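Case study.
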Amino acid sequence: MTVVVTENCHGCRFTECVDVCPAACFHFDDTMLYVDPDECVDCMACIVVCPVKAIYPEKDVPEAQRNWIEVNRIRALELPSILVRQSPLPTAEIQRAELGL
Amino acid sequence: MFNVAVVGAGPSGFYAAGALLRRCPWAEISLIERTPAPYGLVRYGVAPDHPSLKLVTTLYEKIGRDPRVTFFGNTQLWRDLTISEVLATHHAVILATGTPQDRTLGVGDQGVTGLYRASQIVGWYNSDPSHSNFTPRFGAGRVCVFGHGNVAADIARILLAPIERLSGTDISDRALTALQHKPVRDLYLIGRRGPGATRFTPPVIAELVDIPGVEVVIDDPDEQGDDDTQTEISSNVAKDVLEILRGAAQRPRRSLDRRLRIMFRSRPKVIRNDNGLVCVELARDRRSGSDASSILCDAVITATGFGLVGPLWNSLQVIDGALSNRSGQVVDRHGHPISGLYTVGWAARGASGTIGTCRSDAERLVQLILGSASLSTRSATGGHSALTRKLQKNGHHVINFEHWLQIDRVERELGAAAGRPRAKISTAAQMLEAARTFASEN
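After joint prediction, the assembly is written out as follows.
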């Protein structure tokens, strides 16, 4: 099992999740974060700290977002790790407001 | 060469060591651990029915195996080595020693039989050698647990779990046998504040109110949740937890064999023995005042947090249950940094934050240490070789990482024979013996 980062992260890239991850399994590019499914230990600490509720346990990923499962796996393998919290992207707060969160 | 001593081989210690190895190719690390086995609370704290969380040890094992890391197991600072000699032989010393002491209820309950601390109970079901002689007695199975955080929830969940959920885990044999023969039937989980102000996290409370065969009763004297926000956790957490509790409260009553009663706004006033049982007298706070209530039970467990008990811990100043420090740099009682001495994890921040929080804290501390100009002026001769020489001279039995890997193999083999992930060796003496046997054969 693992958790999956889904579309709300895109353009936001809040990184509260990184600070609470014991397995250092988050990877990043310049739009969002991804979780390496082979490193995740299912502690679920990241889920509740995401300001835009972008993360789901794999079995709870909504139908419309299930494509993100494979995206996380593929992208995490190609991208560097992120180990500590960083500033979110400039568009983060606007997007968060648009999501009503 | 950059010699660093990390004291405490729990998660924080391993994360600090890992960050150093990654950021500084010429780092040499002495990883000093009091118990024979590494991994700290991941091995001795995480509950047996949460095996996936224990997989973080894969990461730690990789670090422990790195040729730049020398593991000194069964080696206690301030007993087998002095802090002065560790500071003299290393450029930096990082104390990742945690917060081993339980906070008390403060109600003058000394000498009460049947009053147990969280660290004892968790040590009992997790085969912690520090508690290998501890046996709780749950009598007819009515237990009060004080605390509304994840440690209290873990204890409640393990005590109420259906036996078949525990039998395939690495729970200690003696706890499994005891719970099989004398199940806990009636558990009161008692907290001082309301349901909006707990320290549970959502997945843990969701799991607790969903144990098969256990009826959950939510007992709130003011009959409504409040919206206190926690300063230490985000308000989303408290909100999600409150929703889960409200959901549990609204379920129809059934009459099941076992009961979990979550009591809010209840403070202990007196805890005393009464004819071989324990009497717990509570004050229950309502908006209109406070009611008295009492519970007669077989055992009381306190799980109200951990901390370093001050004012000093091994001559270091303690503030708010942690070592006095500024961003991880240990300071003395005048607020002056002690050159080369750092702290991370619960020892630095107090007993709050999860395993993941310790990882990012360690990452930030190592960034700070490597950026510290003053460290280059510290002389440090000897590193791990100096420690090895000193310990050998005293005939001290050090468990190195190879010895640990052998103990680990033995535990996994013993477990496999019983259909379990491992069967932990529960006394330090037996672990030392397993390590000695390995050493003499190699």
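Observations recorded in class. The longest helix of chain A spans residues 67-78. Strands of chain A lie at 3-5, 26-28, 33-35, 55-57. We will return to this complex in the next lecture.
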